[in-house]
# Entry
Amino acid sequence: MSQPPAYSLVAPRPDRVQLRFSGAWTLHNTPPSLDNLLTALTPAVTEIVFACDTLEAWDTRLLIFLKAVLATTRARGIEVALDGLPQGVQRLLTLSTAVPEQSVRTPDQDEWLLPRVGRRMLLLLDQCREVATFIGEILLAMSALLAGRRPFKPRDFFAFMQNCGVESLPIVSLIAVLVGVILSFVGAVQLQMFGAQIYVANLVGLGMVLEMGALMSGVIIAGRIGAAYAAQLGTMQVNEEIDALRTMGISPVGFLVLPRMLALMLMLPLLCIYADIMGILGGSIIGVSMLDLSLVEYLEQTRKTLTLNQCGQGLLKSSVFGVLIGFAGCLRGMQCGRSALAVGEATTSAVVTSIVLIVVSDSIITYFLYR
# Structure
């Protein structure tokens, strides 16, 4: 049976104290206090040595005790000789002091407004510089593609197209149908008051083609694909795969970012058309079931309402949304740090940035088109 941890003090010379350990210094046992050691450390003591010939076992418990001893002796200016300790203990103590402790600097609550504004402006300028550099790399990769130098593999591009397009159809179908039902129901409640139920088809058709089809498709793809792009590139950043591509002379933007952006730009207009059709069919459910309209009559009224120009506006918006979603997702992924927490933050930031860019760009495009 192992003995409890203990230490004894021997003073071979007035200026030296020997600390002799005995018993099992493990986490299962309670260590002795430092009171006896503090009493023995008189002003005449200038050196402490250790002896472990009667030490039975040790683990983190002994290291914690030794760290406390070292902190006490360092405060009093006493030299410590680690030669008498086991080799493993000496290595661990050396490692514990190899890197100095770093404290996280928190912003001072009483800091003046001007320095805080200046720091935020410098941070904003750094972010603008990163975005400008990223855009420049995308343009260079695009120019290389147009010049015939393919920076990515075609099979990767088609895989991204399948992920953005075919695999996104179920969720787009569900949301588009429900949006069409909601628009039709809201319009039916008001138009029934005037006996103009037939114009529900106009409301749903114009709403889906001009705005809701492209907008809802963009939001869905931002949450499904933009977040995935940020997580994929962020994980590659953590695993240093992007650094490996740069080491081999391969542009990460051309190899990883460009095919993702092109796939979104090409597939999102097709998803927009599909969402428009599903939304109109969803609106017809309310028109046929609640307003006593025939399906042929509803679809004919929708056909008379819509024009090719209006359909082109929705396609234009969806193409812009695809570029913005791919840009935001890939940018946040490339800016990701080297930890799992950073990957989560990059994914969240990609979704938020994509949705904000979608709403802002939708407002700008709508304003200029109607002007």
In short: The CA atoms of residues 40 and 322 lie 74 Å apart.
